[in-house]
C-alpha cells in the first residue's frame, strides 16, 4: 500500500512584528529540526550588533539589490522602513526539489508575494501575547531609539491586519511552546492527504 | 492583542481498514490527550472477546438501532458487513460547544456523512505500511475466520479509494509515531488562523 517516494520539500513562511521574538523562535525550531534549510534573506539595512553577514542576512548595498531586482532573481522583495529585504529564488527551488523543507523569515508584503507565486506555501504568523508585551520586548532589546520603537509598534498594528492571509497563527508566549507549535504544523502539513496520496497504491 | 476566548472543540474523525491497529492508536492518543472526548459508537454487531458495552461500543439490538434512525438521533450511521454502526448527535454537540475536542472512530461511509453535516471536521485516515502487513495483522488477531479476513482485506482496498476525501493520511508503522502524528495534526488545526483570529484585537 505504501511506497516510500520522496516528498517535495515544504516552503514555510514565518512573519511577525519586529520584537515578537521571531529570531529566537527560529533558532529553537532549527535546533529541533536540523533538516530544515533556513533561507537567508538579502537586505540593504545595516547589521545590528551581533549580526553576521550570510548568517542573519546577506547584507548588500542598495545598488547590488537593485541589480538583483533587474535580473529577476528574487522570489519576493519589499521595502520596509527605508530598506530593501528580499529572497533568492534559485536556491529555494533546488532545495524543495531535493525534498528539503525551506524556511523563509519575511514580512507581510513579501509573504503575500510568495503566496501568489507558490500557493502551496505554508504561511505562519507569530504574534506576541499582547501589544504591551511587544512594547516591553522592543524596549528590552535596547537596540533602537524611542521614535523607532514607536514606529515599529505602529507598524505591528498595521501588519496584524494582514493576519487573515496566513494559514496559521502562533502566539509567542514562551519560545519552546511557539517552536513546538510550528513543529506540529510542519508535521501535520506533511501528513496532508495531497502530500501523501502517492504513497497509496491504486488510489 | 490576545484575548483568551474559549475555542469551540474540534470534531475529529478517524477511519482506517479493519486490522490497521486503529484501536491501539486511539488508546495511545487518548492517554496522551486526556482532554479529548472519545465518542462511543452504537453498533448491532456482537462484542468481540474483551470488548465492553459503553467502552468499545454501545451494543444495541437491530430494533433499538432502527428506532434511533427513526427518531433522527444519529449524526451518521452505516451498515457494514451486515451490522449497523452509528454516532449519537446530541452528546457531540454539547461537548464541542463546551470547547472539548471529540474523536469519532467511523468508517468511510460515515465519515462522508460527517463531512456533509460538519464541513469543519478533521478527517484522518490510517493506513497500514502495506497490504501484506495488514493481512499479517488480521491473522495475528485470530478473532475472525479466514473467509472473514479475506472479506476485510477486499473491503480495505475498496475503502482506500475514499482516501482523497480525507484531510490527513497517517501510516500506522509504529503506534507511537502514528499517535504522535495525530497529536501534531490536532495541535496544528488549533493553530489555524480561522480558529484563532478572535484572539487578535482589531482584525
TrEMBL record, chains A, B:
EC annotation from Swiss-Prot or TrEMBL: 2.7.4.8
Protein's UniProt keywords contain Nucleotide-binding: yes
Ranges where the Guanylate kinase-like domain occurs: 9-187
InterPro entries on file: GK/Ca_channel_bsu, Guanylate_kin-like_dom, Guanylate_kinase, Guanylate_kinase_CS, P-loop_NTPase
Keywords, sorted A to Z: ATP-binding, Cytoplasm, Kinase, Nucleotide-binding, Transferase
Main location: cytoplasm
SUPFAM superfamilies, A to Z: P-loop containing nucleoside triphosphate hydrolases
Reaction catalyzed: GMP + ATP = GDP + ADP
UniProt: ATP binding residues: 16-23
Localization terms from the record: Cytoplasm
EC primary class: transferase
Gene Ontology molecular function terms on file: GMP kinase activity
Gene3D superfamilies linked: Guanylate Kinase phosphate binding domain, P-loop containing nucleotide triphosphate hydrolases
Keyword Nucleotide-binding belongs to the record: yes
Family: Belongs to the guanylate kinase family.
HAMAP family registered for this protein in UniProt: Guanylate_kinase
Function: Essential for recycling GMP and indirectly, cGMP.
Protein's name according to its UniProt entry: Guanylate kinase
Organism phylogeny: Bacteria, Bacillati, Bacillota, Clostridia, Eubacteriales
Name of the gene: gmk
